[in-house]
Design brief:
mainly alpha, 2 domains, 5 helices, 85% helix, globular, disordered C terminus
C-alpha cells in the first residue's frame, strides 16, 4: 500500500514537472524559431506545439507512467484524442467561469488548468498509459 502511494506521488510530481518543462520548451522554442531563425510567429508556435506534444507523449509513456510495455499505437491514438478532448473541455470551462460567472480571466485559467491537470493525470494513468491491454487483463 505504501509503495503504491509513493509510486503515485512520484508520478504526480513528475507529471507536474513535465508541465513546467513543457511550458518552458514551448515558449523557448517559439522564441528561438522566430527571433533567431526568422520563422513566422504562427509557424513557430505551431512547430513548438507539435514538439511539446511529442515530448509529452514520450515522457508520459517512458518516464512518468512507465508504460513502455503497452501498445504504442493505442497509447498514441488515445493520448492524441484525449489531449484534444481535454483542450476542448478546458476552453468550455474557461468560458463558463469567465464569461458566465465573471471570474477574472487569469484566475479562471489557473483554476481550469489546475483541475484539468489532475484529471489528465488520472485519465492518462488509468486509461492511456497502461502496460497491458485491458482485455488481456480480464482473461487472466
Amino acid at each position: 500500500m505504501r509503495a503504491k502511494f509513493v509510486a503515485t506521488l512520484y508520478a504526480m510530481t513528475g507529471f507536474g514537472l513535465l508541465g513546467l518543462v513543457s511550458f518552458t520548451l514551448n515558449l523557448g522554442l517559439s522564441a528561438l524559431l522566430h527571433e533567431l531563425l526568422g520563422v513566422s510567429e504562427e509557424l513557430s508556435f505551431g512547430v513548438s506545439l507539435m514538439v511539446v506534444f511529442v515530448v509529452n507523449f514520450l515522457a508520459c509513456r517512458y518516464l512518468i507512467f512507465d508504460a513502455a510495455g503497452g501498445n504504442l499505437a493505442r497509447q498514441l491514438i488515445a493520448f492524441t484524442l484525449s489531449s484534444l478532448a481535454f483542450r476542448g473541455m478546458e476552453y468550455v470551462a474557461f468560458l463558463l467561469l469567465h464569461s458566465l460567472v465573471g471570474v477574472h480571466y487569469l484566475i479562471a485559467i489557473t483554476a481550469v488548468l489546475g483541475v484539468s491537470m489532475i484529471g489528465k493525470f488520472l485519465f492518462y494513468r488509468g486509461a492511456v498509459f497502461v502496460k497491458q491491454n485491458n482485455s488481456n487483463q480480464a482473461g487472466s
